[in-house]
């Protein structure tokens, strides 16, 4: 008798793919006349509105609007070791990507997930707003935002070291700075 797989629900942006880094790089290219040669991206400084990299309201809006641009999805890359870890977990876990998207960018998002992760993903779910209590039941949830971890029955892994992360949240069971740490934790789960 085949055992039912455990549910592993994973956020996409800044968890599976380098969304903010991609947007900040595009912003620096856009504003290259303002850029000095010492630019470096530090996720620990990054805030939810893309500051301190987006310095003006116009640039902040431009950054947010990148989620509606095909070129953004074309430039996305998986986080280091994400695909390798998902390959190792796929036999035991149903891997579900869950992300907040609008109708204007849902198709681009779906194609991006398919192109980057293909058969590693069992299901893709788009929600309108995590903060309205929308969530998918999971055994393990991985997200870069603690405020999206509202399922008290799951093991919640906060991914990454971002300036907007809240690692002290009651919802967070474990903090992983990268996918190797995610794998070590899940392996011992």
Shape: globular
If strands are numbered along the chain, what order do they take across the biggest sheet?
3-2-1-4-5-6
Q: Let me know the number of strands.
A: 6
Order of helices and strands: EHHHHEHEEEEH
Q: In whole angstroms, how far apart are the ends?
A: 23 Å
User: What percentage of residues falls in helices of 4 or more residues?
Assistant: 25-40%
Q: Report the biggest beta sheet as strand number plus sense, adding barrel if it closes.
A: 6 strands, parallel
Rg, alpha carbons: 17 Å
How much of the sequence lies in strands comes to 15-25%
> What quaternary form is this?
single chain
- The number of helical elements comes to 6
Report on the structure:
- This protein has 189 residues and is an alpha/beta fold.
- It has 6 helices and 6 strands.
- A 6-stranded parallel β-sheet has the order 3-2-1-4-5-6, covered by helices on one side.
- Strand 2, helix 5 and strand 3 form a beta-alpha-beta unit.
- The protein is globular, with a radius of gyration of 17 Å.
- The two termini are 23 Å apart.
